[in-house]
Amino acid sequence: MSINNFSDRDRRLFIETFTGDGETVHIFWNCLEKRTVRLCGRLIPDGVEDPLEYLRCSELVEPSARPSFDLFCNKVNSEINQWASDKRLAIDIPLRLREGIAYTLCHVSILFGCGDDGRFTSAHINITPYSEKEISEREIIDIFTSEKAPKIFSQRITRLMDKNRDRNIAFIQFDVDRFKLINDTYGVEMGDELLKYIKDSLTVICTDEQPFTRLTADVFMIVTAFDTENEIVGFIRSIESTMGKKYKGIEYRLTFGVAIAEDRKLHSRCHGDNATLARKSVKGNALNNIGFYNGSLKKALYRQNDIEEDMADAMLNNEFVMYLQPKYSISTGRIIGAEALARWMHPKKGLIPPSDFVPVFEKNGFIVKLDQLMWEKACVKIRSWIDSGITPVPISVNISREYLNFFDVVGKFRELIDKYNIPIHLLEAEITESVDAAETADVVRQMKKCGFTMLMDDFGSGFSSLNMLKTTPFDVLKIDRGFLSEFMESERGRKIIAHTISMSRDIGLDIIAEGVETVDQAEFLQSCGCDTAQGFYYSKPIPEEEFDKRLNPEKSPFSK
Q1: Looking at the predicted structure, is the pLDDT value of residue 439 above 80?
Q2: Which domains are present in the chain?
Q3: What is the sign of the dihedral through the CA atoms of 83, 88, 94 and 95?
Q4: pTM of the model
């Protein structure tokens, strides 16, 4: 239809739409030929080959908004170059419309036109400043789409579900790992900037059919329709790649939780809660940052909450006790040491196994307090042996990685040795070696310099390797129980164990074998030159009183 077929009134309205108030900008952009035609507005001059690149290189974009605008421009270029499907892209960005005036929040939208082959060839760019009233309305909408007032967001989710009755719906929740540390290190203002960047990025990444919101603090949620699980993972990976891993030099990592709305009768908040459980289930996982909800997660969270509710009182009420697992000399059958292990004697639930509470404590940081308690109990036990005239044996205690990163390990150990006046060789320290070994090695060297014996725990568990042996600062290697049981099954595996022990002894490292469960294992280890073992063949971890009884060598069932 020609514009001449419109009435004079309609034609005037059409012209006024483009001329507006002089601030609105309309540009026709031939993306392939790099030509623009300015229909109205003064923000971008005539003859610009790429209007977005012109804005990107100018001083017209507010500095704090540049990362978000860069992301938007990259997305536009991607759409042009890859025959993508998003025909409309938009972003809200503060722009300086004229020289000498303040930045104004503007809505920048691009509507693409396609050629015969389906490729985007042209675009209509519209830049419209928001009025004060519209900015106020946006702020109100932001308030009513948060977790505290989710009415509008919930309505958008309901419409999405109604529109996609034959497709699956996913609630994708994510947060910024260790966001508090970012705030503490770079300041709250920079933390707020990062969150704003993430939210602005979502306006570019998500379509109109993918409602999203910032729930609270650093937690965001997107709801989207999908057909396959791979589609969800692909969407999440595109979020990560589009945002990148750095913002103004700050490295950050996102953790995602996904809940599929299998029962659509449930309120959207229930699906959001399930996404929260899935997100928390992979917190701290270095290998996987996407968790999918299933029923067992809820049960696990309930158990975790019970543990966290009781842990502080448990510490005050002395419910954490020390068990000792004896270390035996294979050749003499006598106890020559012990490892201190924590057990939780709950007044109502009985003995809570460490597999239930230790992972929880490692996540929430309470493991640091438990470590210190076990260190002190070990020193008290050594002191009591000395005072009772019992010949003491060394007790090794575990040092969690959380303690290595944030506390003065060497100072604390020295303080305990001085407090209980015990020989330094009787308190040994075990640390699990890992790929991130530089910080560990530094602490180990400091401890050795003071005179402590240092044990590398779980050697052969997957983190450590033979390559470590040439530079390790440890005194003793503890062969992991999994390494022992797996390699004992074949002749080749036995040779690997034998050569590992031989090589370690040649370079001055002592060996302790963990998880020894059979006499065959004990005899094989002894034939290889390993004389110290611990495991269920000798003894499970036992209370202090029972350990004291076994210290008498005449009563040892393993004496030769």
Answers
A1: no
A2: 3-130 (3.30.450.20), 136-293 (3.30.70.270), 305-555 (3.20.20.450)
A3: positive
A4: 0.57
